[in-house]
Protein: 2-dehydro-3-deoxyphosphooctonate aldolase
Amino acid sequence: MKPDSSFFLVSGPCVIEDEAVTLRIAERLKSITDSLGIDFTFKASYDKANRTAITSFRGPGITDGLRVLAKVKETLGVPVLSDVHRINEVEAAAQVLDVIQIPAFLCRQTDLILAVAKTGKPVNVKKGQFLAPWDMANIIEKIRSVSGVRPMITERGVMFGYNNLVVDFRGIQIMQQTGCPVVFDATHSVQLPGGAGTRSGGQREFAPVLARAAIAAGADGVFLEVHEDPDNALCDGPNSLRLDQLPDLLAQLKAIKAALAT
Structure:
């Protein structure tokens, strides 16, 4: 059977910096994806609880963050996604979010996974940097034990020595055997975790290369963190793409996906 000729995009800044910046980025992403006919879900975190250092910017918190995400959803009519780190966040998050994300470092936390699954909302599970692709089948079974919603799995690289990640593209097909869509996180896969001392580094120049490879390997979606000015972003700037890179890159990904379907 030929692959589907479409893919979907999950994209936005790593963290909500303020309402104006978030809305500006979301509006630009919607314009780009509308022009290319690509399904788009906006992503931004209201709290980055797993930062490298105590001084790292974490975001506005759940109350103000969900308010901003609700405004994005209402103003632009796009679905929104964010991550939860604690069970006591789940109920409030489910009132706003269209997709709830389990962070990579928490992907084996059974009680958190079950709490999210019980909301009935679609779940995006980031594969832990410490897991093999086939290990995700057990996590998916946890979700299916309490929910009929089909989860998504997001590949974001595997630890390769210290402060480095590597991607095994065989994992896309292996994880698709669970029956779940598999998303490739191109920008987190070029992150250098903790590689800049008090923050993570990154090699954003390689993110487009990996995104193209992932689509060629059959990924159902692509996850890209973007910013107007990555060098001055408050979180994950070194691995985030500039917004103005998106039109050309997404057009390339569409062409690769279409070629696979011919």
Notes: The first strand starts at residue 8 and ends at 12. Helices lie at 19-36, 62-76, 87-94, 110-117, 136-144, 170-176, 207-216, 246-261. The chain has eight helices and 13 strands. The mean pLDDT is 93.
